[in-house]
Amino acid sequence: MILHFYIAKRFFRAFLIVLAVFISILLPIDLAEQAGRIASTEAGFAAAFELALLNLPGALYEMMPLFVMLATLLMFLGLARTSELVVIRAAGRSALRTTMAAVGAALVLGLIGILLINPIVAATQAQYDASISRYQSGEVRTLSVSAEGLWLRQGNEERQTVIRATQANGDGTLLFDSSFFTFTSASQMQQRIEGRQAALQDGAWVITDAKIWDLTVPNAETAAVQMNEFVLPSTLTPEQIRDSFGHPSTVAIYELPSFINQLNTAGFAALKHRVWLQMELSTPLMLIAMVLIGAGFTMRHTRFGRTGLMVLTAILLGFGVFFIRSFAQVLGESGQLPILIVAWAPPAAAILLALGLLLHTEDG
Questions:
Q1: pTM to 2 decimals?
Q2: What span, in angstroms and rounded, lies between the C-alpha atoms of 320 and 148?
Q3: Which residue, among 298, 286, 291, has the nearest Cα to 101 in the 3D structure?
C-alpha cells in the first residue's frame, strides 16, 4: 500500500509539472490570439487577458488525456532512470500491479474532472462566449430553452426583441405559438406580437395569423390589430441561431440531462449534447487508457536503449487514440455512428491494446 501511494504521489507530481508547462505555453499564445480577435474594437489588453483566462480552463480540460499520458511517461521514465522499477520488479511485483497506482490516480483525476472541473469549465466557457460576442459586435443574441419553451433575444443597443415559442423546427427558423416583445434602449416595452407560427426569411420574421399590440398607447387592447401575415425585421440568420446554443461544454454535466430533455421537448434533436454527455462520462476510462499506453512503452530499464523511440511511439499512439476519439465524436454528432460506440469504444479499445502490450512485455 505504501508503494502504491508513492507511485500515485509521483504521478500527481508529474501531472502538475506537465500542466504548469502547458499553461505557460498556451496562455501567451491564446493571449495573442484574443488580442487579434478584438483588435478592431476599443477593448484593450485587459480585455484580451480576461478572454484568455476564461478560455484557458476549457482548453486545458480538453487536453487532459494528453496531459495524463505525458505525466505517465515522465513518471515511469524517472522511476526507470533511478532504477526504482528494477527494485519494484525484484520485489515480486508484476508490471500490471505496478501500474494500478497510476491507473487509480488517473481514475481519481477523471472523477474530479467530471464532478468539479466540468462545472467550472462550463461557467468560464459560457462567460467567454458572451464576452467575445459582446466585444466583436454590439448585438446581443441569446437563445435559451426552458420548461416554458424556447426563448430567443435579438437586437442591438437601440432596440431589443425577446421571442418566446412553445416549439421550433430543428434549426430554430420556424417557431410555433410565438410571441414577440420589443423594447427600447431604455428597456421600455413598445410592442407585443403573437402569431400561430413565425418563419425566419431573408432578414425578417414572417409571422402568420398575427395580433399586434401597441403598448405605447393608453388602451393597447382596443388598438390591437390582427393581420394574416406580419413581417418583423430581424438581424438573425439560421447560423446565428444554431451558434446561440453554444458548445455543449457551456452546460455543466449536472444540468445536461435536463437540458437535453428540454431541447427534445422544444423540437431540437440535441444529438450534439447527447454525444457530449457520453463523452464526458467516458473521460475516466480515457485517462486510464492513456496511463496504460504510457506505461506499456516506458516500464523498462533505460539500459535496454531505444528509450527515445519508445517515448515517441507512446506519444504518437496516444495522439492517435485522441484523434480517433475526436473523429468518432464528429461522426456521432452527425448521426453516422451510435452514441455509445462513439464515446466508449475508442478508450475501451485503447485499454485492451495497452493491456496486450503490457502482458506481452511481462511474459514475452
A1: 0.77
A2: 44
A3: 291
